């Protein structure tokens, strides 16, 4: 029987990528005097790699090959990422990113039904804490018994490790849980851990391959507006 819901964060709980993470990366690049600028379309390609530090290294290797890497490039990436996290969490503190349609209601209904809640994400723990606090509710961090995030497992999504870690922390098996994702890397990770998954798409993930999803929908819906069902069924 269903005991717990496990949520991805970026793109699933909130549309954080285009107007959040991307903007914060660019602010960090400016702060460090770099002329790198990730526009909306380039960022869509960079999302192929999860994890901010990993994404910056991928950018330099694949899209900015003329950049001369300094000897301490890895330290620079770590410093850039710290600045990026600061810019991103400041944006959230200002109320910059709302929850996606239906997600607040769904989480509240799950709590009322006595379901256990967890997070499984590749993003940095501070980013999750800030989103839950400023965009969901002041005490929302206490609603989630496990927040599996960031470098807690070395192999990020699409590897299943982060979901497996969350299951272990909760002492549950995959059949006891249901996952919510928005991307191909995300659903590869959740299905890899054996967890049934509902996908809510967004602009960056519309064309992804969601083979194996229980259903693919436009959003979580609200009482006055049902989600558009793209594949699968919300019943049965
Ligand atoms: C989220 C990510 C993250 C964020 C950036 O993917 O890919 O890398 O874009 O976060 P998912 P950090 O929704 O599949 O978890 O910069 O903190 O790594
Ligand atoms: Mg996501």
TrEMBL record:
NCBIfam families: HAD-SF-IA-v3. One of its GO terms (molecular function) is hydrolase activity. InterPro entries: CbbY-like, HAD-like_sf, HAD-SF_hydro_IA, HAD_sf, PGP-like_dom2. The lineage of its organism: Bacteria, Pseudomonadati, Pseudomonadota, Betaproteobacteria, Nitrosomonadales. It comes from the Bacteria. This is Phosphatase.
């Amino acid at each position: 029987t269903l005991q717990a819901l496990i949520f991805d964060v970026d793109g699933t709980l909130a549309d954080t990528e285009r107007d959040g993470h991307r903007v914060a990366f660019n602010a960090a690049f400016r702060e460090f005097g770099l002329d790198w600028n990730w526009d909306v379309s380039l960022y869509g390609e960079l999302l192929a790699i999860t994890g901010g530090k990993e994404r910056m290294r991928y950018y330099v290797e694949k899209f900015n090959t003329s950049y001369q890497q300094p000897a301490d490039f890895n330290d620079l990436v770590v410093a850039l990422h710290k600045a990026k996290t600061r810019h991103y969490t400041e944006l959230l503190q200002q109320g910059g990113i709302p929850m996606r349609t239906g997600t607040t209601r769904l989480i509240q209904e799950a709590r009322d039904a006595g379901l256990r809640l967890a997070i499984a994400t590749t993003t940095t723990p501070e980013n999750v804490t800030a989103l839950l606090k400023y965009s969901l509710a002041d005490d929302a961090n206490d609603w989630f018994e496990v927040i599996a995030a960031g470098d807690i497992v070395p192999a990020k999504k699409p590897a299943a490790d982060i979901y497996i870690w969350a299951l272990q922390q909760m002492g549950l098996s995959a059949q006891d849980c249901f996952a919510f994702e928005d991307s191909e890397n995300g659903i590869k990770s959740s299905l890899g851990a054996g967890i049934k998954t509902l996908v809510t798409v967004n602009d960056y993930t519309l064309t992804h391959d969601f083979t194996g999803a229980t259903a693919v929908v436009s959003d979580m819906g609200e009482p006055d507006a049902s989600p558009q069902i793209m594949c699968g069924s919300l019943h049965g």
